[in-house]
Write a structure and sequence with these properties.
With about 250 residues, the chain is α/β, with parallel strands linked by helices. It has a single domain, classed as NAD(P)-binding Rossmann-like Domain (Rossmann fold). The strands form 4 sheets. A 4-stranded parallel sheet has the order 1-2-3-8, with helices on both faces. It has a two-stranded parallel sheet with strand order 4-7. A two-stranded parallel ribbon has the order 5-10. Helix 3 (about 50-65) runs parallel beside helix 4 (about 100-115), helix 5 (about 135-140) packs across helix 7 (about 190-200) and helix 7 (about 190-200) crosses helix 9. It is built from 9 helices and 10 strands. Helices cover about 35% and strands about 15% of the residues.
C-alpha cells in the first residue's frame, strides 16, 4: 500500500499473490511494465529455518522470475544480510555474512535481481497495515499490563511510508546497492516503550535477552544501516515514522 501511495501519480498496477505468485513465471497476460517494485517476499524469519527451500523459492527463485522480464527493478533486501558483529552502522560496502536461512535467501535474491536493479536494504519495517511490530505491540497491550521484549538487538525501525517516498527519489539515481533506513537507532524494547508512550497506552516493557526468547533463527544483534553515498535520499528519524504510523491507525 505504501508503494502504491508513493507512486500514485504514475500508472501503478498493484499485484497480489493471487494475481502473480512469483514462484512461477509472470502471467502471460501481464502488460509490459516500465519498472517493477518487487516487494513480494518470504518474511517469516523463523519459518525459513524450518523450510529454507520454501523461503529460497520465493526470495531467490521469485526474484529471478521477476528479473526475467528484463525491465528496471527495485528489489527490497534486508539488514539480515549482515552478521551484526559491528557496533557502528553498516554501509553498502561492508562485508555481508547472514546468520539465518532468511538472511541468506535475501542476499541470494540480491544477486538474482541482477545488474538492472536498485537493491534497497532496509530494516525493521512497520506500517499501519499487515503484520509488524507496532501493530503486534498495540494488540498485546489491549489485555496485558506488561510485555517482554528483546533488549539486546539494535537497529533502525523504518516506517514503510517514509521508505516508499525515498524509493521514489532513489530511482532517479544510478542502479546498485543502497541503504535506506530511518535515522536514529534503538532496541526492540526501546521501540515498544516508545510505541506505548506515543499511543498513550499504560503497558510496561520488560527487556529480555535474545537467548531468553529462544527463537529458531539467529538475528544480528546490531543492524543499523547508513548509506555511504551523499546523494542517498535521507529518511526521517524512526520516532517521526512511528508518529506518522500511529496517525494512520
Amino acid at each position: 500500500m505504501a508503494l502504491a501511495e508513493a507512486f500514485a501519480a504514475d500508472d501503478v498496477i498493484p499485484l497480489t499473490r493471487h494475481e502473480w505468485d512469483v514462484t512461477y513465471p509472470a502471467p502471460p497476460d501481464l502488460s509490459s511494465p516500465d519498472m517493477i517494485l518487487h516487494a513480494a517476499a518470504w518474511t517469516d524469519v523463523d519459518g525459513a529455518e524450518a523450510d529454507p527451500q520454501g523461503a529460497a523459492a520465493v526470495n531467490v527463485g521469485g526474484t529471478s522470475n521477476v528479473a526475467e522480464l528484463g525491465v528496471p527493478l527495485v528489489y527490497f533486501s534486508s539488514d539480515y544480510v549482515f552478521d551484526g558483529r559491528k557496533r557502528t552502522p553498516y554501509g553498502e560496502s561492508d562485508t555481508v555474512g547472514p546468520l539465518s536461512a532468511y538472511g541468506r535467501t535475501k542476499l541470494h535474491g540480491e544477486a538474482a535481481a541482477g545488474e538492472n536493479a536498485w537493491i534497497v536494504r532496509s530494516s525493521w519495517l512497520f506500517g499501519p497495515t499487515g503484520q509488524n511490530f507496532v501493530r503486534t505491540m498495540l494488540r498485546l497491550a489491549r489485555d496485558r499490563d506488561e510485555v517482554a521484549v528483546i533488549g539486546d538487538q539494535r537497529g533502525s525501525p523504518t516506517y514503510v511510508g517514509h521508505l516508499a517516498e525515498a524509493v521514489r527519489d532513489l530511482i532517479e539515481l544510478p542502479r546498485g546497492t543502497w541503504h535506506l533506513a530511518a535515522q536514529g537507532a534503538c532496541t526492540w524494547a526501546e521501540l515498544a516503550t516508545a510505541i506505548f508512550d506515543e499511543a498513550g497506552v499504560a503497558c510496561r516493557v520488560r527487556p529480555i535477552t535474545t537467548a531468553e526468547l529462544g527463537r529458531p533463527a539467529p538475528r544480528p544483534s546490531y543492524s543499523v544501516l547508513r548509506s555511504e553515498h551523499k546523494e542517498t535520499p535521507r529518511l526521517p528519524h524512526w520516532r517521526d515514522g512511528l508518529r506518522a504510523c500511529l496517525e494512520r491507525l
